Amino acid sequence: MNQVKFSVFADIHHYPGVFCTDARKRLADIFKRAELNKVDFILSLGDFNHSIGSFPDIMEDAEKAPVPFYHVMGNHDTDGASLQEVLKAYKMPHEYYWIDINGFRFIMLDTNYYAHAGGCTHYQYRNYFDFPQTRETLPQEELDFLKKAIETSPYQCILCSHASLERHHNGGGGLSNMNELRDVIRRANAEERKVIMSLNGHHHRDFLCIKDNVAYFDVNSASFDWLSKPHELFPAELCAEYELAAHQAIYSDALSAIVTVSEDGTIKIEGCRTGFLHGITREMSPNPVCDGAGRPCTAEILSAHFKLL
């Protein structure tokens, strides 16, 4: 029976002087955990490095991964560089692609487009801030790619993206053309179990649900929760060192998950739990306790063991 075991993390946000993440140490800890668990590969679900040209150090760290290391494009990965520059640095063959590993197809999607002027434009140099209503829109070409990737696969498929493929667009932050994408999944699974899981980052939340016999796993940030309204709870020297520290609730340690998927539909998630730096939680800030999807901020990634029908 085919089985694959991998390490997954999201939103490590390497941005020295701006975010307090200690991203290089977190990455080293994620690699160490992955190696101890003898995974087949490591997966980053986006927002790895805000500027590959300004901060190449973590790219050098990535080269030291103990097993193959794959990336999904995040909205902040192209904040300080062009799409092509980031694709080259991350060694991605395209902004969306697939890889076959141990009898499973991992389909890496790119949710970082906004709809404009009758088409879709990829995020680049923070252009997406001008189009908040049509962010996270999959171009028709990518939907066609997804159909082909699933239809031609001899294996069960796992979808990997930055933004959620499960959340509602209005309020929840999911895709603007969610219905079209979910229709592709439903059609693929109409006669057999073809798409079994979807993993995403972006929302800095810990959540798991099963819809239409597909496990949707919202992977928490490896480093922090973003707070729209700043607080004044961190020591002054921390805020002096990191420009946006007041907009963070920072996890004490790196968060990642070890996921094992078996051909019979069994999925095992081994999460982890930590605390908050200086004990500062979202509840202590002037922000709503939950995000737009009603999900609270927790310094953990859940553990679960279940079997799909």
Instruction: Tell the overall outline.
Output: globular
What's the number of structural domains?
1
Question: How many strands, which pairing sense, and closed or not: the largest β-sheet?
Answer: 6 strands, mixed
Helix and strand composition category: alpha/beta
- Can you tell me the residue ranges where pLDDT is under 50 for at least 5 consecutive residues? none
Question: Which architecture name does CATH use?
Answer: 4-Layer Sandwich
**What is the mean pLDDT?**
97
Instruction: Determine the N-to-C terminus distance.
Output: 17 Å
Helix residue percentage:
10-25%
Roughly how many Å is the radius of gyration? 18 Å
Any idea of the CATH topology? Purple Acid Phosphatase, chain A, domain 2
List keywords for this structure.
309 residues; alpha/beta; Purple Acid Phosphatase, chain A, domain 2; globular
